[in-house]
Amino acid sequence: MESSSGAETKEAACGVTEETKQDTAAAARTAPVLDEIRLVVLGWRWPGKSLTGNTILGREDFRLERAAEFCVTRQTEVKGRQVTVVDTPGWFSAQDTPPSYKQELVKGATLCPPGPHAFLLVIPVGMFTDIDRARIEEHVSLFGENVWRHTIVVFPWVEALRKITIERYIRREGQNLQWVVDKCKKRYFIINNCVFGEHPQVGRLMEGVERLVAEEGGHFVPQEIVEEKKVKDDNKNPERDVRELGARPKQNSGLSLSKAVEVEPVSSEYV
Ligand SMILES: Nc1nc2c(ncn2[C@@H]2O[C@H](COP(=O)(O)OP(=O)(O)OP(=O)(O)O)[C@@H](O)[C@H]2O)c(=O)[nH]1
Ligand SMILES: [Mg+2]
User: Does 90 reside within a domain?
Assistant: First the structure.
């Protein structure tokens, strides 16, 4: 919701627009509270991924070292939920990201098994270009097309908004940022990394994740885990053995072919 009134502007800077209030109320009504929330933080280099992780955890767990090359996982209890945050290496903005960084980035989704509830795509408030959009598309898509259904945009550096609301900022930045927000089904939150300790925005973010999980029917399952499960299930599936060995099941073995066919199909993206 956009407005230039002082009171609303102040609220917007804290992430409390009327829209967010209504969204939060709706989320509270519909989404069950999760005991455990698993998050993977993504973004280019230096936008505030690690600090955003710290704000969520309420502790200085992630080191703010420049150009982190490896994923780091931290866990603590936040607002009654066990929260796991995986911090990932940022991608390069002005040149190709080395393959080793990309590999490490994708590994991030496997470090909170059975898979993250949400990816937090950290985009600092500021200028957003067509190159930023292309880089985001390239790197987020490394997790597979399904990743977008589990991605929430998180905007730090909210002090740079000054007197405007986040909605107005998104509109003002134009189609590149709008494209990213739309790709994430308009799921976005602002987070003020300058405030430490009790943080109302963190609770709202948790509720946003719970709403996403309710709407998408579960958490994200990394491709590696889908494939592992497929291999395990294939090994358990006698029909496959029958097919591959070219044999017929014994008539009175107690395992008819029709029974074997009843085995659950593998590879639902969600478990
Ligand atoms: N003022 C302000 N500073 C921030 C904010 N978020 C992050 N910073 C600062 O920005 C710098 C980078 O933050 P990091 O969290 O280390 O960034 P990163 O994305 O993890 O960086 P890499 O791991 O190198 O990719 C640090 O000096 C932070 O203190 C914010 O919301 N406001
Ligand atoms: Mg970092």
Answer: yes
Which ligand 1 atom is at minimum distance from the Cα of 194? 32
Name the stretches of the chain with pLDDT < 70. 1-30, 225-226, 237-271
Centre of ligand 2 to C-alpha 232, Å, is 36
66 CA closest ligand 1 atom index = 24
Residue whose Cα lies nearest atom 8 of ligand 1: it is: 48
Cα(143) to ligand 1 centroid in Å equals 24
Same domain, residue pair 139 and 243: no
pLDDT score at 238: 56
Q: Is residue 250 part of a domain?
A: yes
Cα–Cα distance for residue pair 144/131, rounded to 1 Å: 20
Global confidence as pTM? 0.79
Which CATH number goes with the domain that contains 138? 3.40.50.300
In the chain, how many domains are there? 2
Q: 49 near 190, Cβ under 8 Å?
A: no
Task: Please indicate, yes or no, whether residues 230 and 118 belong to a single structural domain of this protein.
Answer: no
Q: Which domain holds residue 110?
A: 6-216
The answer to whether the CB of 67 falls within 8 A of the CB of 141 is: no
d(CA 126, CA 172): 11
pLDDT (tens digit per residue) in 170-210: 999 999 999 999 999 999 999 999 987 778 899 999 999 99
Q: How far is residue 79's CA from residue 120's CA, in Å, rounded to a whole number?
A: 18
Q: Who lines ligand 1 at CB under 6 A?
A: 43, 45-51, 64, 66-68, 90, 156-157, 193-194
Query: Which of 177, 180, 173 has its CA nearest to residue 147?
Result: 180
Are 209 and 236 contained in the same domain?
no
Nearest CA residue ID for atom 2, ligand 1: 157
Q: For residue 234, how far is its CA from the centre of ligand 1 (angstroms)? A: 45
